[in-house]
Amino acid sequence: MPHEELPFWLVNVPRDQWPSECPDFLRGISEKDKRIIGTLDDEYRVLTWEEVRDIVRSNRVDKFHRLPSELRRYRQFTHRLEKEYGSIMKFIVNERLKWESMEPKGEPFQYDDDIKILYNDWPYGIDADIVHLVVWTKFELDDDAETGLSTEASRQQMEGYVQKTFASQVKDLVWFKNWKSLKSVHAVEHFHVMLYKPDAEFLKEITGGDVPMTEKFRTG
């Protein structure tokens, strides 16, 4: 429930840090984001592993949302990126992926050099035992032009990669590719993998010791 006594941009902010007016990074955001950011963290219920599996199974990935205070930080972060880098895509490619070229070396999933696995920088409001990773690719993963969903061929390619890379190490997992309308980064192909209670050493190995931006970014 949105907090009815305060403007949405003051909710979850310590009183001694209240801005005098709505910050630039929260101006012009959607009504949906305003509603989420205007909800107290204490009133937000994180999703269980069973709920996450059901959401992915029913392809209702639009039901994934960030914790209200995390969504606020995410908006502040992306606002800063757009000013400093010109676009989120440039930051992703140059700072997160560190790819000098976006030209794939071969066919989809043929070469490891065309793929990078990192943490989702701003994960959803989910059980702390669930680890959310993003598989970034230099190659395209085809979508159906009419539905915007993955083609059967690209689904099989992703499924094969997930089984080979993750399933041998993690018992419980799900994967999904966002609908085009839900993607926050359109220009770099990617899909999502969620692992339940994975081994820490496996995560360190598979991500190259990556640390998500949510753990690095400082507001203010």
TrEMBL record:
InterPro entries on file: DUF3605
Gene Ontology cellular-component terms listed: cytoplasm
Pfam family, one: DUF3605
Superkingdom to which the source organism belongs: Eukaryota
Annotated GO biological process: N-acetylglucosamine metabolic process
PANTHER family xref list: N-ACETYLGLUCOSAMINE-INDUCED PROTEIN 1
The protein's name: Uncharacterized protein
Organism: Decorospora gaudefroyi
